[in-house]
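Trying the structure run again after the queue cleared.
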Amino acid sequence: MATQVLCRLVTMDDTFKVVWTASNGAEAVERCAQNRPDLILMDLVMPVMDGCEATRRIMASTPCPILLVTSTIKGHMDLVYGALSCGALDVTTTPVVGDKRDSDNGSLLRKKIYTLIHLSDETVETVETKAARSPTKLRDQTGLNLPDSRVPIITIGASSGGPAELSKLLAGLDPSLTAACVIAQHIDAEFIPGLEHWLNSQTQLPVCVAAEDSLIRPGRVYLSDSTSHLRLTDTYRFQYTNRSQGTFICPSIDTLMGSVADHGSKASTGILLTGMGRDGANGLLEMALAGMSTLVQTPESAIIPSMPKAAIALHNNHQIRTPQMISKWLSLTYTGRQTTGVTYA
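Done. Tokens:
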């Protein structure tokens, strides 16, 4: 019944065509090998083989974009983040249909599919063209060598495939870190508490969702919620702002990085990881032009290389490293054992 409802909701838009359905994970693996689609909607709790194992097998044998669609969030966050770690692009809740006031009749699901298609269609050339039309202005570089007592901020942006890469990066961080990490990860708001819990199990640093108007403290990892855009204020506090009109994704990496470029310590660092589209490319450039260190995940190691490629196209002086190498660089840089000018090769 659930499969039939999803098929009906998806095909309400004649842009989409359902090429096959499967009643369990094992059947999905087999059908994908026979007829690989443009996108798979994958449930998590299924008989024979769950969605996490099915995702792992599909991504290992016949890689295909996978959107997790599940109603079983409570008690199954390990499956959610296990599947995301195996290469699923994103996750959303199963649509609520019927006469209830909270019924969305599939519009949110179709919007998620549209967003994935929209982002995957964006190219590096598009980024370069937009940058040429609206070049980022060079910021005032005076006073960059003056003493700065503010906490350095490690700003990390990630999208599709991000949870797995965040796990690799955070796992290697030294617990005596003298900087604060602030993460903007594109993911539905319902899954932020689970992401907070899961990342806490992956690192020795405490992870929490950034609270409005709270001060930033070193040695902590802050997550942006996904209902608004997170930014740093001139008083060094967190502030959430409403979504911009026409914005496809939330939280905006560009908004967060741009605010750190404006108000953050000059010893701060910007990092852009895997993802579709170009969010974060302009923000990372702003941080670079403000005299801050900037690093980009190697496109070859990214599950989805679009965002790293977009950042590199805008600015070819970013350091390009795998998440594990970035982690080592950060630990060397922000534990007092070496200066912030260290380059880890």
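Residues 107-121 form the longest helix (15 residues). Worth checking whether this holds up in the mutant runs.
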